[in-house]
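User:
Can I borrow your eye for a moment on a structure tokenisation matter? Would you put together a sequence-and-structure record for a protein of your own picking? Please set it down just below, with no commentary around it:
AI:
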Amino acid sequence: MQQMKHPAARLLAATLATTFAAALIQPAMAAPAAELAPIDVANLYIKTIVNQDEASVARLNAYLRPTRLAGQQPAEYASLSGLQETTAQFPKQTGKLIVDLFPASMHAALTPAAESLAANVIAAKNGAVCQATKADPVTVDNGIQTAAVSFECHLVKVAVAWAPASQQLAKSGCKVEQCVAGLQKIAAAYTSSPKQTWRAVFAVSREKNTEAWRNDFARETFDEIWDYL
């Protein structure tokens, strides 16, 4: 399993962090959170962060809002427009990281293929089929209730991930036409390769029953998906 991280993964993670931090505070009154089971809340986080699903973003924001307002946090946990903007910027930003591996004289010719490769990578991430599978019994420690929720994602399994594959290609001494074809081949793998399963555990917690189940560091779990792409 390819475990090599690339600066683009950290770039996307940092951008998502900025997106969440920039959410607007709504002038609403705090009220008890609607009751949802931990496994249902985990699914909303998954579909928000991994898939950027519009309905899930709206439902998660509505569910978390009373607790966040009571804690004097921004009312909205996630901004759909911000997530979509991150996705829109990913091909150009990551494409530049890819072409920078090659001689400067090749950059203009390689940019379209590099951006197409990056677009396939982000589409593979957003298109992962994920589902929470079970929630362990709730535990209580120092008054904090915690539920560990197991989940799995089915996503593309390429022979060599895009970052090391691009690095290998850049070091191969390929001519422009060969480099373009090589990038196109890497990109095609993200639409034609078989699937793999990524399994992990996502914990949600709350202090009392009137609060929402939540995980303020959710991205740290889901950032691991980049290790599989």
Summary: Residues 34 and 206 are 13 Å apart (CA to CA). The two ends are 10 Å apart (CA to CA).
